[in-house]
Specification:
Layout (H helix, E strand, L loop, with lengths): L37 H18 L6 H14 L3 E5 L2 H13 L8 E4 L6 H8 L3 E4 L11 H7 L4 E4 L11 H10 L5 E5 L7 E2 L2 E2 L6 E5 L13 E5 L2 H10 L22 H11 L2 H19 L5 E2 L6 E2 L5 E4 L3 H10 L22 H4 L4 H7 L2 E4 L7 H14 L1
Parallel strand pairs: 2-3, 2-4, 4-5, 5-8
Antiparallel strand pairs: 1-9, 6-7, 6-11, 8-9, 10-12, 12-13
Helix pairs in contact: 1-8, 2-8, 3-4, 3-7, 5-6, 9-13, 10-13
């Protein structure tokens, strides 16, 4: 799941919304409000941007290199390769992986309950998406469904840490091992910066990981941005080359047909500043989520559950209820921002229609989730009063 999938300003009313407040003296509670934390990082970032502008060094410079080093250390991997979006991060890794496989063995297993970029990256890299269903409680890729779909044609599996909650990586690995598969495992950790599983960070749980820095993400750039994380030096070198037109040893030495997917110096400078504040922002999200978990324990809504040993980054705090549409209408009337991610699972998308005969019959959980999930406000600097207003509005609606 990558960039535009959780843009709070999209026009589709099924994707996100906030309505007029219930009373004139109460301001709306937004679904997300990145402006609130700007005083913490903005002044330093403004100065960093000025320094980049005055340097006239806008690409392939020291800011990107420094950000890659800092991000790799933050995640706990040997290498981070900064690119211009998480969509390209997925594409470049899959391109490197799939080109090593024969054309008849380029299937990639992934969940349909995610943003379209996860599957479109597979297609654009020359692979075939194979949709495996998700777990009814964690909403992440179900290992049992992976086991049903893995075959000698499987080149890779892409678990998505949906909403910031780590997928069952142990279960996915076990399913592949039981099938005797050597498939590459790629984390789509677009929403999961600072999530952990068994004490290890998302992005360091598989052969490689990818992250998004889209403006609505927990760690956001001032535009698009993404990164690949890995402990594999050969893969890191391959992605570095592919992001820069396939260049390797020197300028105009192209071993592959690559693309232009470089992160620019301005984005890297901003992300370096914001990375320092990320732990505090993540702690704030988790505090709001903990209060919601406590308050909703006796209500007919089911928050996303975590696999054993997992800690979510809570990019989105999402609940599941059969009365989703009525709850959404009531929250809008009370001035509470909310959003639906995602109203149409990938195996129902027109662009993957040719995959529907197999995918549509095997993903009933994803179909159910699309009609029952609702994301609630959960962001840094959200006040206790706002949290209680959300809780009261949900309780009243139910």
């Amino acid at each position: 799941m990558t960039e535009a999938g959780d843009n709070p300003r999209v026009s589709d009313p099924t994707a996100a919304s906030s309505a007029a407040p219930q009373a004139p003296d109460l301001a709306p509670v937004p679904l997300m409000d990145p402006k609130r934390v700007y005083p913490a990082w903005g002044p330093a970032a403004e100065q960093a941007v000025v320094e980049v502008l005055r340097s006239h060094h806008y690409v392939k410079g020291p800011q990107v290199a420094a950000f890659e080093e800092a991000f790799a250390a933050h995640v706990g991997v040997d290498a981070a390769v900064a690119v211009d979006s998480c969509t390209d991060a997925l594409f470049l890794v899959l391109r490197a992986v799939l080109q090593r496989r024969p054309p008849e063995a380029r299937e990639v297993i992934l969940p349909p309950f995610t943003f379209v970029a996860t599957a479109s990256a597979v297609v654009n890299a020359g692979g075939t998406p194979v949709f495996a269903d998700v777990d009814p409680h964690t909403w992440n890729l179900a290992p049992a469904s992976v086991a049903e779909h893995v075959s000698e044609r499987t080149a890779a599996v892409v678990p998505v840490h949906i909403f910031g909650a780590p997928a069952d990586m142990r279960g996915v690995r076990a399913a592949l091992a039981a099938a005797g598969s050597d498939a590459f495992v790629l984390e789509d950790a677009a929403q999961a910066i600072e999530a952990t599983l068994d004490g290890r960070a998302a992005g360091a749980l598989a052969d490689a990981g990818t992250f998004s820095f889209y403006p609505s993400k927990n760690l956001a750039a001032a535009g698009d941005g993404g990164v690949v994380t890995t402990d594999d030096p050969e893969l890191a070198a391959k992605v570095r080359a592919l992001r820069d037109h396939g260049q390797t040893r020197k300028m105009y030495d192209h071993e592959d047909v690559g693309t232009n997917s470089r992160m620019d110096e301005l984005q890297a400078a901003i992300l370096r500043i914001k990375l320092q504040h990320l732990p505090a922002w993540t702690a704030a999200r988790r505090a709001v989520a903990a209060r919601y978990d406590e308050a909703f324990a006796t209500l007919p809504v089911e928050p996303q559950r975590l696999v054993a040993g997992a800690v979510s980054a809570y990019h989105l705090y999402t609940v599941r209820t059969a009365g989703r549409d009525a709850l959404r209408t009531a929250l809008q009337a009370a001035g509470i921002g909310c959003g639906v991610y995602y109203p149409v699972p990938l195996h129902r998308q027109h662009c993957f229609a040719e995959l529907a005969p197999s995918g549509a019959s095997t993903c009933p959980v994803a179909d159910d989730l699309a009609g029952e999930v609702l994301s609630l406000p959960c962001f840094p600097d959200m006040t206790a009063a706002e949290t209680e207003r959300v809780i009261a509005a949900v309780r009243d609606a139910l």
